[in-house]
């Protein structure tokens, strides 16, 4: 995959960027929100797409 499809996922609780993912920007126009494990909070928290 190319680098322009790469996105950063930021924890909504502690505001740290802990995950990276790929996204098809042609089909998904809105920002992605996933539940992921945060190493800083040490629990599953919602992560939103960061710029």
UniProtKB/TrEMBL annotation:
Q: Which InterPro entries does this UniProt record tie to the protein? A: Ribosomal_bL33, Ribosomal_bL33_sf, Ribosomal_zn-bd
Q: Which Gene3D superfamilies match?
A: Ribosomal protein L33
Highest taxon of source: Bacteria
**Would you kindly state one Gene Ontology biological process term found in this protein's UniProt entry?**
translation
Question: Which GO CC annotations does the UniProt entry carry?
Answer: cytoplasm; ribonucleoprotein complex; ribosome
User: A GO molecular-function term, please?
Assistant: structural constituent of ribosome
Q: Which UniProt keywords apply?
A: Ribonucleoprotein, Ribosomal protein
Q: Which family does it belong to?
A: Belongs to the bacterial ribosomal protein bL33 family.
NCBIfam families linked: PRK00504.1, PRK00595.1, rpmG_bact
Record protein name field: Large ribosomal subunit protein bL33
Provide the species name: Candidatus Falkowbacteria bacterium CG10_big_fil_rev_8_21_14_0_10_37_18
Query: Which gene specifies this protein's sequence?
Result: rpmG
